[in-house]
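Record pair follows.
FIRST:
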Amino acid sequence: MMAEVIRLGQENCRDCYKCIRDCLLKAIRYSDGHAEIMQQECIQCGECVVTCPRHIELDWNDLKLVRRQIRIGRKVVASVSPSFIADMDVGDIEDLREAMLQLGFADVQESAMGAELVSREYERLMQEERMPVVISSACPPIIKLMERYYPDLLKYLAPVKSPMEVHSALLRKQYPDAFVVFVGPCYARKGEQLETNCCDAMLLFSDLKKWMHEAGVRPINRGIRVMRGGMRSRRYARRDGIVKSMTRIPGWNRVAVDGINDCIAALEELRQGGISRVFVEMSSCIGSCVNGPAIRFNRYENRVSGTVMVNSYAGENDFHVPQIVPMEKQFHPMPIDRTPPTENEVERILEKMDKATADKALNCGCCGYPSCRAMASALCQGKAQIEMCLPYLHEKAERHSREIVDNTLEAADQVIDRQMRVVQNIASILGETTAETKIMLSRLKEAIQGEE
């Protein structure tokens, strides 16, 4: 079962459907007035976190755990994603290490060291030519996307651990008794950490910034220097960074695809066949890790400036890390059962929504779904509510208003008729004798009682 990392806060969820609109896989159910992530269909890309105008709940708090380990005297070492240069206000890893040592860390290293070994494995797979297509396995949401929605293409996914897994193993070799922490911009890394136990905790860059602020540790920034001798695996943080970190293998093409939408399109194309000797770098975030969800949540877009900083920090050399840890990893299909509703079921819902004809189906997207038919299908599957349709609600409100007005006018007419009858009876009384008046008053009383 996939670890639950992100939960949508129910108290602040208020009928906006933005998370549904931005979730390309529609892995969000809306019921009882709030949205809920369908964990088995979610790939933990973090788009719902970025787009939500309210507060998303992250279902973990490793910051307290890490601080406690340091407080009790445990040796704590950190593996930092290459994207730190795009989000942390430091000039290089030495600046960041100096700041984190003040917090109590025993050592701080770049996970780009693990990325270097991962790139060598990708090169080996191409050289051996056992796989006609090789898809990078460094991005957790891409792995989940393929396991759940494209299990037939797992044969193309490189059977190689991620840079986080590899570097964490290297740190455990170097510091056998240490508490290993990964620091990065990706919510899905927490899911990967929980599922693989490769490290002991995971912090976001925002967690680290918060900690530094509370501890009074100011970021150290001696300026980003052009690293002519820098390491090429530091490019992992940018789009096509994996491709640029590898040595070209003769006869193989290398392609970089970023963003869930384009990755899905690329997988659909691969499913058609006819493509061979191609390495495909896939990243769920547009711009890759420099534009990770935890970075976008705080700074909006960071594609251009983040890539520029990575380019300035990277180079053409290698760390020359010895391969002393296992690299192989197996992936297992976990297909999602998305049996579509029957045509009759969809048509029945469309009829109820008054969207049965083309002129009534506005496909406005207000509900978060791309079309009225998609919305009707979601209703059949119990993932949506009919009240999510704004035109439907508008027509329902107008119909209700008309009914209220009609009922009010009818009630007013009845009151007027009753008062007119009373007035007529009084007028007739005034024209009669005393004896007759007594009789008429009795009739008037009976009339009024009858009206009541």
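SECOND:
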Amino acid sequence: MKPATVVSAIALSTVLLAGCGASDPTLAQDASAAESATRVPRVTDDSGRPPVTFDPCLDIPDNVIAEAGYDPASKHVSEYPLDDYTFLGCDFRTAERKYSLTLLSGNVTFAEESEKTADYAKPLEINGRHALLKFREYARDECAYSLETNYGVLIILRGLEHDLIGPAPQEEWCAGLEDTVRLIEPLLADE
């Protein structure tokens, strides 16, 4: 299976299986303190790719998550160390609108991500950074952005949970997600 296909499967399974990843209680520390500290990535691989230096569970402060409308206390840590690449994940939920937010920080290249999603992704820029809006009609109630980073990509995926029979109206799938992406993007301080 191509790494790009696995990444897509990881993103979808993360939304569907939130709560099944590895967890580390030490990650509950204040993210703002972690921002200034140089640390070893919590997971690495032997691929020769750059280490994943942005950890969404440590490097996104709770106030940013709250400003985006998600509950910082709902944080769930996950990680996907594979031989060819690594993803560090963090999931959040919001009680009011029933959204789930999955952040996947990985060392696949933006070029690989662009090639994998070429059939449905729209290239754009977020705060001057190369990005992809990933919207697939067959991926019901789901919308995602991928941002280029100095180590690879940050994928910001949102799922809409609801009690409707069938999907929510398509215009709701991505509504407001770009605002969340614009809040998170400045935290990707590229060295």
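COMMENT: The first strand starts at residue 71 and ends at 81.
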